[in-house]
Design goal:
The chain is an alpha/beta fold. Helices cover about 40% and strands about 20% of the residues. The relative contact order is 0.18.
């Protein structure tokens, strides 16, 4: 679990197997709210359990990123965790990528080049 800077424009958050606390998500939301200009990728590759607090933190992070025209991409989300998103009606709210590389490529395609 942790936060990594993949580039000047992209942060990667790796969630643990059982994200009991959402410290990284909350910290990233605070960074974005302080106008840190970054897209965010959240890696679910280790996640086996999805607590409701994590869903709430993801929603706040999505809102914060969207308020400054940045993207939030969830990657490596298992079928079981995706089913949770569908059950609570939130799958359409988030962008999903198969893995970190696909998430980076998605951001590259959707982000206008800076001049």
């Amino acid at each position: 679990m942790g936060i990594q800077s993949l580039s000047e424009e992209v942060l990667l958050i790796e969630l643990p197997r059982e994200p009991q606390t959402t410290g990284e998500l909350d910290l990233t939301t605070r960074l974005i709210n302080s106008k840190t200009s970054r897209h965010v990728i959240v890696d679910f590759s280790a996640v086996e359990i999805m607590p409701s607090g994590t869903i709430g933190s993801l929603m706040m992070l999505k809102r914060a990123a969207g308020s400054i025209d940045h993207q939030l991409v969830l990657c490596s989300v298992s079928a079981g965790i995706q089913a949770i998103f569908r059950r609570v009606g939130l799958q359409a709210l988030f962008q999903f990528a198969t893995d970190k590389l696909a998430a980076i490529e998605m951001l590259d395609r959707e982000t206008p080049a800076r001049t």
